[in-house]
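Q: What would this complex look like in 3D?
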Amino acid sequence: MSTAVADGGTSAAPALIELIGVTKTYGQGAVAMQALRGVDLVVHEGEFVAIMGPSGSGKSTAMNILGCLDVPTTGSYRFRGVAVETLSRNQRALLRRNYLGFVFQGYNLLGRTSALENVELPLLYRGESVAARHAAAREALAAVGLANWEHHSPAELSGGQQQRAAIARAIVTHPAVLLADEPTGNLDTQRSREIMELVVALNRDRGITVLMVTHEPDMAAYARRVVRFVDGRVESDIRNPEPA
Amino acid sequence: MLWNALLLALREIRRNLTRSFLTVLGILIGVAAVITMVTLGNGATAAVSTQISSLGSNLLMVRPGQRLGAGRDTAGAAAFKLADASAIESEVSQLNGVAPVVSRTVTVVHLASNWSTSVVGSSNAYFSVGNWKIVDGRIFSDTELQTGKAVCVLGETTSNKLFGSENPVGGTIRIKQFSCEVIGLLAAKGQSSMGRDQDDTIVMPLRTVQRRLTGNQDVGMLLVSVQDGASTSAAKQQIEVLMRERRRIAANQEDDFNVLDTREIAEMLSSTTRVLTLLLGAVAAVSLLVGGVGIMNIMLVSVTERTREIGIRLAVGALEREVLLQFLIEAVVLSSIGGLLGMMLATVASIVLANLMAVPYVFGLQINLLAFLFSAAIGVIFGYFPARRAARLDPIEALRHE
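A: Here is my prediction, written as structure tokens for the whole assembly.
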């Protein structure tokens, strides 16, 4: 079934993420739908993992669980050793707030709100001062190459720029993990490449662990490890010695 | 966290200015209506209260003829005489005084000025009974009263019309064929609740008016002032018995005079205005409730419309209570803004309407505070349900929402 061991056994870094026999079932009885049928996965700090698979393979469900937005039906998800499934909704929210950053296919920026205000959104919930929020948001915007666009609303930004702003929002809290769900799905090849280079740079320079769902092999090629889901299971887990 | 939520709410309101304004409108109108109604009502009540005190306390008016009403005979009743006043004074207990009153409308002249006003003939009791104060000069002497000398005391309006800014005391006015010396000036009382200028008057000794103006011994009305603490209804009853006796009315006949208790009427009037105020206020409060439902409606629409946004907020780590608070505060801020604007509108509307309706404008701190707090409370009550709905959204579903 799997062509490579999930944990390469070569790294001394502590396990950041650990899925142990995770299943996820939607609905009950006859209409029950099993999205995940026992997934084991270990991701270490600093990795760049692409998650691939056909639609319905369970990769989105896995992503939701990894993002602490959902919990497994059975099995365990350990985040830095903490069993996420035992946490309350609010505790999971705190976990997301402090350790995770999200990037979505549809950017999901707040409309009629400047790039700066969008980026500082996660900081609002961390109760930081206005000055600290502005400084951090400007720094994050500069890091994604939008230094001069902070007062533009999403409608005034191109698709690529919107995704950059979304990435800035994801990294403004200096998260341990960046979860990207088809981040280039709405972009042309050129824009996609730029976004991927940005993600690679964040992974390389800041040591942010990246988990990225994609169905494009071109994009997966940027990752150092590609996990393929089929039918709710991990079908293959391949290391890419020479990422793009 | 509260500060942040307030900031978020203000941002959201600013983001949807038109919709926010329309939402606010319901509360604005409700608050303005409540405050305006109650303020005007209080003004009317205050006007009636002023009227009560300017009438003099515990005043009974005894007039010939039956009280006006369907099928009542008002004509043909004999007038009172001065002796009736003396009889009441000596027979009825616990009185401050009895003033016989006869009045005529005449034209008075001073130099080139002339003015048509009502001349009242009475005794010195008229001043105490009617709660009149003398600001300059004096009241009548006994000799003047007994001999019917041509002296008079002017009301402020009459004085202004005839003497302008001059002091009228010591001056002389002409009334028909005779001249009359001004010996005193009355303190202003202002308008009565019916809008009549009470200061447009001249007071003379009863005998002077009887002799020189009416030409008979009739007294038009008796003003009876009852002592404080004494029962006006007991006095009224005694007067009725006494007058029936004096006017020789048989047991099976109705009174051919009537005794009006002015305070009773004034109290009735003011309690009527109070009830009306409450009623109007209550009707207006219903519109405030409707405004609250409007807020709930808009907030529910807003939650549905912003499902994705809520998903984003939850994804980046907003706690349930933070989302709840954001939406709740948004509702409260909206309704409070409505309350504030409503207070302003009410102030303007009350002043304008009070002017039009000739009632005094009385700023009611209580009703303003009450209406404002009520509007804020409406924000909490009607904002809670939509806010809870927002807070309980599943982030995954919310993010998928189109």
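A: To summarize the key features: The helical segments of chain A are 59-66, 89-99, 115-119, 121-124, 130-143, 159-171, 189-206, 217-220. The two ends of chain A are 27 Å apart (CA to CA).
Q: Very helpful, thank you.
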